[in-house]
What does this fold into?
Amino acid sequence: MRIVTTIAEARAAVRALRDGNQAGSIGFVPTMGALHAGHMSLVCAARGQCDAVVVSIFVNPTQFGPNEDFAKYPRTFEQDCALLESEGVDLLFAPSADEMYPLGASTFVDVEGVSDRLDGLSRPGHFRGVSTVVAKLFHVLAPDKAFFGQKDAAQVAVLRKMVRDLHFSLELLVCPIKREADGLAMSSRNRYLSPEERRRALVLSKALWRVEELVSENVVAAPALIDAALAVLAGEPEVRVDYCKIVDPETLEEVADVRKGALAAVAAVVGTTRLIDNTVIAPLVTA
Ligand code: AMP
It folds into this structure.
């Protein structure tokens, strides 16, 4: 696996990969590092569908708020490299913040509307940072397919719209949420949790399971489903709910019922760690 840190090197390396694969397809997996099996499932999907795989590791400062965890975000570069190497990744792009944001850079990508919903509502400016850095990475690496996790469902909605609005010539693919055996959605931030917090955090997936269970019993009204999820979440009073919503997966606007399909999404703070989780509710089949 080749590791590059500058944009010039990354461009040349991608060109070499394309030439080496006789203009085959390039799959791209953007990450912030501290890799786990969730990230690796994206790498696996990229390897299965593309001729060459490029991964980026960049803890993007512009997507963190002033009181968020940018400084303490886990950085495990050596381990990450070993994992990516063992999964047959061709190229790792690991730029510095100065490389991605040259002095005086003042150009941002803002996907209006959708960026202010769900996490965007609680984390103002978060998705502006995400869409800006992902646009830059797409621009530099020019992949044919880019792989993202359903875990960050709101991010997927924002980036899908960005790809459409800005005519990026690539396909955006979404991989399912990887969970621990007990249901906790894998996240780089799970390593912040104490054993007790780790136990409490299970309430997020349990709340979503309750929603799935009710939908399977033909409960379709969003308020009833949200109330049921909130009742489960209330079982862990130490867990502070940020949002618990049922929305349209594309616009992230709240829906009244789930008959046409929906996204049930939850965010909550456990100790000092903000966690997110979601489940996709398929459209109901009517006879
Ligand atoms: P991050 O490093 O947190 O920015 O995540 C990089 C990519 O991995 C994003 O597309 C995430 O949605 C995806 N990802 C993170 N956790 C999971 C998970 N548990 N299952 C599937 N994909 C994930």
